Amino acid sequence: MRAEANPNVIEVEGLTRLFGDFRAVDDVNFQVRRGEIFGYLGANGAGKSTTIRMLCGLLAPTGGRATVAGADIAREPQRVKERIGYMSQKFSLYMDLSVVENLNFFASAYGLAGAERRARIGDALAQADLEGKGDLVTRDLAGGVRQRLALASALLHRPPIIFLDEPTAGVDPVARRGFWRVIRELSRAGTTIFVTTHHLDEAELCHRVGLMVDGKLVALDTPEGLKRTHVPGTMMSVGGQGEGRARNIAAAVTGAPGVLAVQPFGLRVHVRVDDRLAAPAAFGAFLASRGLPADDVEVVEPGLEDVFLALVQR
Amino acid sequence: MTGAAHAPALEARGLRRRLGITDAVAGLDLTVRPGELYGLVGPDGAGKTTALRLLVGLLVPDAGEARVDGVSVMSGGPALREALGYMPQQFSLYGDLSVAENMRFFADLFGLAPAIFRQREAELMQLTRLDRFRDRRASALSGGMYKKLALSCALLHRPRVLVLDEPTNGVDPVSRRELWDLLYQLVDEGLAVLLATPYMDEAARCHRVGLMYAGKLLAEDTPAALVKGFDDVTWLVHLSDAADPGARDAAEARLRERPEVRALSPQGGGLRVVVDRAGDAEFRRYFAAADAHWRLSPVAPDFEDVFLRLVTHAS
User: Fold this and answer.
1) Fewer CB near the terminus (10 Å): N or C of chain B?
2) Residue B182 pLDDT > 70
3) Window A:124-163, CB contacts with B under 8 Å
4) Residue B132 and residue B116: Cα distance in Å, rounded?
């Protein structure tokens, strides 16, 4: 089979979707490799969900083509659906059913039966740390455990690729770390992960990240590569010493030569500067020249949020 | 302390509330000053939402007291309603009403005179940039716009204290930053804000943070001071082949075996490692002998490290 030799699990060429005159997805091109954790970011309304719905075989494209796990999304949407898993914050488990009832429901939906079904449900319980707890009502599970049960349900039929649509919205850091450990294990075992998130610390955990703005894919690279390209310079965190002062500092440095971007950050201000001001002495002298104290300055790493804002507010 | 001269705008003293078999809030003391942005952070089930409901008088405490501008929230009455704005986590708006209709509804609730309403509506619409969407139904708004409308409705009556339960959940990064800019602006004008969030990068943006776990505060301070007090050592491990996720995973599996390693997470092409201070010398000895291609550089701890440490200790 051709798909066996192909390292790409998703191939997208010129993918376009119109709603009336509105170009929700506009000539998008990318590939996702087997086992890759691929992050897909964008503002609300940028076209992420429309892209996912097309890739899951739920919505026909207006133009272009895409294959998912070897199946063409326009000509073989049913085969696409059989070969993918899907999980989202909004659509997942039945809260009033028990853990096992939920797993049985999904197993039936995927056509699993007999010994195979029992074995897969056993695996899913283990994966969600719910062995021996199958009778618990889903509503009573902690958020993080419920999240992992939803993931295990979406993987019951062992799809080669899983789509995760904002899987951790509202989940705390402890549970999120646990969830991402499972994601990385899946990736290591060869499952491809396509994930959307609004939380850019999670995007840092992806192998590659694509960013959509107004229906177009405007950037695609590793997190490090995106930062190098789109957030040049050095980020200084300047102490604000008291409420309200941060805004004064921001006002005093905004637009100055050598200053690339300014952002209040709690009691501090993040000031991104070019080479002229990157040396500590130069930056200290710059602050002093504006009547600002230079005794509380730290260099901080820019994050993907800075990349996101640089690209979206262009 | 900069704001010590101010009386607290919002105050909790010994608040307790049992829900079913759990002590959802088990003795909570906190104050928020005018012009202060206070973040209540904690894992799911820590009691954040219950604490906020007690603080705004929606739940009756089993013990203790909450005061807004010196007035007990249990005394209720118009003074409290005027002082307080509250944005719950779940839908607080009418989905089948338009943006403008929702605002008018909340203005009527608070008995705003028409002239005052028109002026404040115009201000808030401009501030939140919702003017373009005034005829759109609330249920058709994106997550970010919906939250901005909910915030506008909570601000219409000019409260002096604003309580927000996970205001940015489901909101994209651009709208999130707009919401934060809006909050900073209001706080600069003297508003006291208390917000609950599960996100550590947001906690780091607050003036002061309380870390809540099992119904109590484990720690409370400015984010910078909490990070400064972090006692473990944080390292970044650079791998020889940063582009190869397999190499990173293999390194992670090896380092996870080390008893002195408390936490481990991928960062960039490398790994971020939190090491017990007492075991740090041992860790560096191990590291020097482990792999000639690995390199170690110090990194500053961040707020998430502090949070995970405190929660791990407490549980």
Assistant:
1) N
2) yes
3) 142-144
4) 21
Tell me which residues of chain A, numbers 189 to 228, contact chain B at a CB-CB cutoff of 8 Å: 198-201, 204-205, 207, 222-224
Distance from CA of A76 to the nearest CA of B (A): 32
- In-domain check, residue B205: yes
Examine the domain organization and report whether B14 and B125 are in the same domain.
yes
The verdict on B112 and B243 lying in the same domain is no
- Name the residue in chain A with its Cα closest to that of B192: A243
B197 and B274 part of one domain = no
Inter-residue contact B207 to B37 (CB < 8 Å): yes
pLDDT digits (tens, 9 = 90+) for A10-64: 999 999 999 998 999 999 999 999 999 999 998 877 899 899 999 999 999 999 9
Locate all alpha helices (DSSP H) within A22-63, ordered by sequence: 48-55
Domain that holds residue B287: 230-314
Residue of A nearest to B200 (CA): A173
Do both B114 and B153 map to the same domain? yes
pLDDT digits (tens, 9 = 90+) for B119-130: 999 988 887 888
The answer to whether the Cβ–Cβ distance between A305 and B201 falls below 8 Å is yes
Q: Cβ separation of B245 and A312 shorter than 8 Å? A: no
Quick one: B89 and B150 in the same domain?
Answer: yes
A42/B contact by beta carbon, under 8 A = yes
The answer to whether B107 touches B121, Cβ cutoff 8 Å, is yes
Q: 90-129 in A: which are within 8 Å (CB) of B?
A: none
Residue labelled with tokens 């708006």: B93
My answer on whether B184 and B245 are in the same domain is no
Q: Which domains does chain A have, with CATH numbers?
A: 2-221 (3.40.50.300), 231-312 (3.30.70.100)
| DSSP track, B186-214 | HHHTT-EEEEEES-HHHHTTSSEEEEEET
ipTM: 0.74
In whole angstroms, what is the distance from residue B236 CA to residue B209 CA? 26
Asked if A204's CB is within 8 angstroms of B207's CB, the reply is no
